[in-house]
């Protein structure tokens, strides 16, 4: 993995460390939304939501476009796929280790 890829991964996981940002990602997984729409369920200011969106943008998890007067936010599925792929790689390694340990334990049980 290149240094640039590691940096992107670090920014994405850091961004997802905040519950508000995770909730924004969950909302955007259902459909695109404006800052006003994203801010509705929260008891924080629109400016605070905007700052969270900027963090998610800087992490490469979301993008924004212009649609007339609207500036909808969009979830970037490729960025989430990169995170999922990284997690899956490590999950598979751990699962292999656990299967090996299970096999050793089964062998020990049979020998008793």
Automatic annotation (TrEMBL):
SUPFAM superfamilies: Winged helix' DNA-binding domain (SSF46785). InterPro entries: ArsR-like_HTH (IPR011991), HTH_ArsR_DNA-bd_dom (IPR001845), WH-like_DNA-bd_sf (IPR036388), WH_DNA-bd_sf (IPR036390). Gene3D superfamilies: Winged helix-like DNA-binding domain superfamily/Winged helix DNA-binding domain. It holds the Pfam family HTH_20. Residues 1-95 form the HTH arsR-type domain. One of its GO terms (molecular function) is DNA-binding transcription factor activity. PANTHER family: SLL0088 PROTEIN (PTHR38600:SF2), TRANSCRIPTIONAL REGULATORY PROTEIN (PTHR38600). This is DNA binding protein with helix-turn-helix domain. It comes from Actinoalloteichus fjordicus.
């Amino acid at each position: 993995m290149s240094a640039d890829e590691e940096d992107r991964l670090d920014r994405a996981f850091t961004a997802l460390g905040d519950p508000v940002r995770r909730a924004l990602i969950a909302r955007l997984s259902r459909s695109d939304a404006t800052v006003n729409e994203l801010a509705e369920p929260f008891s924080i200011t629109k400016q605070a939501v905007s700052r969270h969106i900027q963090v998610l943008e800087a992490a490469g998890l979301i993008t924004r476009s212009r649609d007339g007067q609207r500036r909808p936010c969009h979830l970037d599925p490729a960025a989430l796929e990169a995170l999922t792929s990284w997690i899956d790689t490590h999950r598979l390694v751990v699962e292999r280790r656990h299967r090996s340990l299970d096999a050793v334990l089964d062998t020990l049980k049979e020998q008793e």
